[in-house]
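Structure in, sequence out. Go:
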């Protein structure tokens, strides 16, 4: 079982993290794990506990710290980014208490967590040794996010009143999903569904529209933050992703290539969103692993290379 710590307090909102130790003597290098959920739902237990990548990292001597951060739209992007940066600060200042080597850290995120991981690559001081983005994205002002999604508009419509009913009067650091119910029944997911059907997710995330205030989004688009000093980056994406277009990772890979940043792009044929959550450690060790399992193995190898 992981050890849980409150790493930040904002008023009555406690931000917690879970420390998953490695299986080798430390101090251990560490992966800062950022959960998905469109920045609107989920918590630190979404992905990390059962992830084959995390389990394999532990076996090769890499610890994981999975964090909560405040959720949109009650909290806007600048303050969400501040939470993630404060988690990096916690690693530097307090990680040694948990046998963690805060100087050797990478960041990994899934979906919106992948977006935050990519954002952290340009914002964090010190920078991570490596960035791993699983089906993340580099541009929150692209047409895929600012116009109605073909995939999501094929689902029953969510009204604005229903979306607003899911809002909290106070900041949230977690909105866990009940997996005994259909995903589309979760109020916070339906809030996200509304923003994708209307093409207004960026408006909810930052509080202004990219059409009227494009300059406000520049600091929060990783694709615009990449320089030659950006950390080595691994991009993993399914070619059949119905939530975040695979083109997002392709575009970011081209930018990384253009400035000479060491990087890898792995596309998983016919894989949809969250393909890695279906991969087990046994599948990764199979004599003939699937493309998804091979992608997870690549993630562990990439992290081992830059955290070694």
């Amino acid at each position: 079982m992981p050890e849980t710590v409150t790493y930040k307090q904002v008023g009555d909102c406690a931000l917690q993290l879970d420390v998953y130790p490695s299986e080798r003597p430390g101090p251990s290098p560490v992966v800062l794990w950022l959960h998905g959920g469109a920045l609107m739902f989920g918590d630190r237990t979404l992905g990390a506990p059962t992830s084959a990548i995390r389990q394999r990292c532990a076996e090769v001597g890499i610890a994981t710290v999975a964090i909560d951060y405040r959720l949109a739209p009650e909290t806007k992007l600048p303050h969400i980014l501040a939470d993630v940066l404060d988690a990096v600060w916690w690693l530097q200042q307090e990680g040694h208490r948990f046998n963690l080597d805060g100087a050797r850290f990478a960041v990994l995120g899934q979906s919106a967590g992948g977006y935050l991981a990519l954002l952290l690559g340009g914002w964090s001081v010190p920078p991570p040794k490596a960035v791993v983005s699983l089906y993340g994205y580099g541009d929150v002002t692209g047409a895929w996010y600012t116009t109605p999604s073909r995939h999501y508009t094929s689902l029953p419509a969510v009204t604005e009143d229903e979306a607003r009913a899911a809002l909290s009067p106070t900041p949230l650091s977690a909105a866990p999903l009940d997996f005994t119910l259909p995903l589309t029944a979760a109020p916070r997911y339906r809030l996200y569904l509304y923003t994708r059907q209307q093409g207004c997710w960026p408006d909810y995330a930052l509080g202004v529209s990219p059409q009227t205030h494009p300059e406000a989004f520049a600091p929060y688009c990783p694709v615009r933050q990449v320089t030659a000093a950006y950390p080595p980056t691994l991009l993993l994406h399914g070619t059949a992703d119905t939530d975040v277009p695979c083109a997002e990772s392709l575009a970011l890979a081209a930018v990384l290539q253009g400035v000479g940043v060491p990087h890898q792009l792995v596309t998983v044929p016919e894989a949809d969103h969250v393909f890695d959550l279906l991969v087990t450690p046994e599948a990764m060790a199979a004599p003939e692993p699937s493309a998804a399992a091979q992608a997870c193995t690549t993630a562990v190898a990439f992290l081992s290379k830059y955290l070694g």
